Give the backbone structure.
Amino acid sequence: MRRATAFAVAVVATFAPVVLPAATGAGVACAATTPHAGLVIDTGSRTLELCVELDAARVSGLHLVELAGDQYGLQYGFGLGGQGMCRLDGTGPTGDDCFADYPDFWGFWKGDGSGAWTWAPTGPASSTVGNGELDGWVWGAGDTGNTHAKPPAVSIDAVCPPEASPTPAPQPSATHAPSPTPEPSPDLAGSPSAGPDPRSSATSVPPPTAAPSADASRSPESTQASRSPVATGSRITTTSPVPTAARSTAVLAEAPNDGEGGNGPNRSLAFALTLATIFALGGWFRLRANRRAPEP
Amino acid sequence: MTPPALRYDGVSFTYPDADRPALDAVDATIDDGSFALVVGPTGAGKSTFLRAANGLVPHFTGGVFSGRVHVDGRDTLASAPRKLAGVVAFVPQDPAASFVLDRVEDELAYGMENLGVDPAHMRRRVEEMLDLLDLAELRERSVRTLSGGERQRVAIAAAMAAGPRILVLDEPTSQLDPQGAEHVMAALQRLVHDHAMTVVLAEHRLERVAGWVDVAFGVDEGRVFTGDPAAVIHRLAVGPPVARLGRLVGWDPVPLTVRDARTAARAHANPVANGHASLGQTSGEVIVAANALEAKHAQRRVLRAIDLQLRQGEIVALMGRNGAGKTTLLRTLAGVHDVARGSVIVDGHAPQPGVDVALCPQESDAVLFSETVEDEVRATLAARGNAHGAVSPWLERLGIVALARQHPRDLSAGQRLLVATAAIAATGAPVLFLDEPTRGLDPDSKEHLARFLRSHTADGGVVMFATHDVELAAAVATRAVMLAGGEIIADGSPADVLGDSHVFAPQMTRVFGPGWLTPEQVAEALT
Amino acid sequence: MTSTGVASQTRRLGFHPGAWICWSTCAGIVAFVTTDPVYLLLLWAVAWFVYASHRSAGATAASFRIFVLAGVLALIVRVALVFLGTVNAANVAFAAREGLRLATILVVFGTFNAVTDPFAVVRLAPRRFHEPALAAALALSIAPRTVASVQTVREAQRLRGINVSPLRSLPALAVPVLERGMEDALTLAESMDARGHGGGRRTRYRPQPFTPAAATIAASAALAAGTFLSASFGGWAELHPASLARPEADPLLLVAIAVLAVPGMLKGERA
Amino acid sequence: MSAATIAPVASTRAPRLRIAALIVVNLLGAMAFLWPFALPALLDVTGNEEHRIDGPWILLILLVSLGTLLFLELGRGGLGPKAVALIGVLGAAMVALRLPGFVAGFSAMFIVVLVAGNAFGPSFGFLLGAVGTFASGLFVGGLGPWLPFQMVAIGWVGAGAGMLPRDGSWPVRIGALAAYGFVIGYAYGAVLNLWSWPFVAGSSAIGWDSAAGGIANLRHYVTFYAATSFAWDTFRAVGNAALVIVVGKPLLASLDRAARKMRLHVAEPITRQGA
């Protein structure tokens, strides 16, 4: 009987983390300030320069793209388990494997706002961008910052004019069809998260090693580091961003899904929780009843 | 005109790899509706004779076969055993090993399923069998959970369900206690009398079956002769104690039952003075002492308040029905079963299994693993740190020197028991326990065993054996202990203890009264 | 036929094993096509409910607990493997969801094992597989005898002064057990032959009927699996939400999982 | 008739056809295990990116092909009472050894399959391995999608043991069997991991990558195996070899004797009409 109770508690407990962020996330969404960051995308055929309104002081590189999707209808697709950049503005692989078109892939650059770009030391899921900074994405070949093409040199002021309005109009001469619902992550189905694949570790999701822009030595070094399970650097950087990243992503992921302000998912999660509780308790009572009167 | 149930015409059969025929020009006819007994010494060909009835010999065994067996008019050579399943049913010696399915009910139906019997008919048949053999209560039980007698009845019902006219059983009572055996024999008789079945059974323990059957087939060295049970038993020099007495003192016909023997005794002579003096209480040193001993098995108390002392020089028979706690008592005294309360002292300390106490288990084959008999004994010596000890004295004492180089598994059951006993006795332990040493034992092996037990005690050891075989107890024991419900209910000389019991009284006691145990005693007194 | 009330290990209660096979396959498919923890955890609750309602009297009832443990272990292993490679929140979350999926499949089959009687499963074998199925059933029913035989031999050897624990002495244990098994096999083969094994076309004694209740179970399970498969192929609902996104749940799919609890709402029947 | 070859599985089909069928179904089974390596190559031929198949879905395809293998192998029928009884008894030994006799990857269950397969031949070995595994799975409540994989893998262990020399001297026979037991200790683990590998390892340097070539996947798998299973399986390899060395000879001798006693080699009785 005690086991049954424990089980019921466990079921409820496992659902709790799923529901809780919904409650806490609301606070994050209502951040007072309206910081902006720039997003520069070079598909090879055209360049987009977007001024994106942030919903927190700092957001992840991925989330910046999501925000751009919301604000400008940018089409995108994440992969490698939802943490790599596969597809932007119609360019790049559709599946989960963002290196399907290797040697071409989306190179990730960080801009300090002055127009200079550095090869991003970490993947877009763990790299963050804040007010006045820039993220750059360039489609092409080259495993390191030395070989991969850089985004055009633009300053933050060029992308986000100081008097930028809170509801920016799409800057690029948008030839793409703005889709109201961004495809969240097209195919996460079976396969799997990015790991130390020799190609993937070199670039988009490199382990956050100490030297941020030691371009020349990136590739081999990161491959080595990723094989070692106790790369201390990776632990430190992963643990801290989890709550914020997870929360903010979660909150915004629901927004386009539900125009009514997030009630729908909450309602269905509550429904799930109710069902689970009913079955858990029902099972517990059944077991107790069967024990008491073993067999008819 | 119905054909005879079984007819053997000049049947000879030799097993593959054998140099001697197991059956040699056998002619025999078993009439419809008879209750036939097949007797003979171990290895004489009884099993082969029975297995020829449904074609297991030669279809299952291979080998060289000549002659013809007709069962219910059908030639066994022309039909494989499976084709005869609806005609003749066969129940092997160990029913527990013969069960195919798990539930009693399913087991009964298995044969009919194979024969493609219509499900509705099958259902009716199963119900009939359950009633006929008094198994309705057990229908949903797992066959594993049944007692020996219940298993035997389930095996009979399962063999019979397909509706054969002939039932062949190989030693159906050898593993049962007297009550269980009685129950099975009564069921078989009902089949013969009320249901016109023909029953053929082989049995060692003639005292259990001789009174029930109406015809006997003696098998000796592959030859078969027939006659009424008394004549056959007389000729084979086998038989229950009353028959042995009859032969010893020259009664004709040889009595087969206690009742016959009483009649004969009245007609011929009356025994002299009441019994013979019971053996004096041995006054050797106490080697094994149990004080207020209690033991449990699966939470249940199986032994309670046992006070028992075994002295040097004693041969103790431990008797009691199945489940009385005999095996548990032996195991507890030997130090392999936990003592719940009280104490066991062997030679001044707790028993050390394999050192000062040795036990030959019920399934004595369980100890045999070597490739030759002498290796088997040597393995024990080596385990006792005496790898170069002499093997031959042990073989000599059990009369198995001639078998030293043979593979133990090639020997007969009786010989294997002697080998196991030698291997166990070679521990040199003064205290020797044997759990039911007489299963499947032919008279010759029994004699060797008895002689060994006496020599062991003469050397200062002590022996206790659990047995259902009252006749063995009567013959070798110097003391008998009766267990019931985990308690000792009688302890004394065999004459007193056995004479006092209805169930366990040996036949001599039943005929001549308390005090008389073995035919030899009585014969001596009569002459 | 009235029951005798005799306690038995093999009482046939519950539904046709075919219904259970269908249920577990369908529930397995549901777990198979999604990595959304909401669906998966709800499936755990449903499996628990079904198990609690129909756990069998036999020893296999314990397998639910064992499979839950195994599932948790699989989850841990799956997540631990991430630490061989790049570690970050998304990676860990993704691995946890995949691990949860594997764990859920384990729990579903744990439920199946816990609610069915092994012999009933074997009885289900089609006629073509009668012989292997019979051999499997025999193995099941003989196994306790083999275990007992091992204990007997071990003790017998000990009482003769041979300790079978060291590897060296293993033949003293293994050979007598095997020899006895071979004798049993001989008896068994004879008995089967004498009772008409392989004689021709077989019939079946009291096959467990596929009752309306069993059909209900099978149909409802198929419905649930069908709904999920259509979501998977049709793409009308998200079954693999982004690793770090808050999981979502489609009400229709939640209902589909709830439908898998139907066996728990039906009363077990005697066959 | 060679005394060592018994054919408890009497088939009515022509032997050549039967052997061909056997090879085909076993190849099918091998494919079921090896698809992670073969598949990318197959996809390369089509060159169609859209046809990239999701790992887990292939499990279903595998189950179907293994099911077919088992269906054909076990459904051949005509085993007869002797083979069924022997498989029942030896399967019971496997069941009995499944739970108590395991240390890490080692299970004492294997000794039964090794020895009996060797004594009674490949066909019997396969049946015993498959049926015994099924029964032990039922007994411990271990039914699931992995069962067909285990059945086929252990069936192959038995079949392989049956192909080892049987007529040589004891040291040769035991030596061969012990070496075989050692090798299959690893091979079984390696083969069985394959079914869950694409699930468990994810796509990483040790995971299955549908886009990578067979060789690259093989390299991934070797890394995965070394990291997760090698030490575990060493127990099995060493345990198998040690058991064969210690009890192999007496058990084989027992089984050989049993085969004689049960007249497994004797198909037809010789009848002599005289008298």
Remarks:
- Confidence is low (pLDDT under 50) at residues 1-12 of chain C.
- Chain C has two domains: 17-118+211-265, 122-194.
- Chain C touches chain B through 57 residues (CB under 8 Å).
- Residues 17-118+211-265 of chain C form one domain.
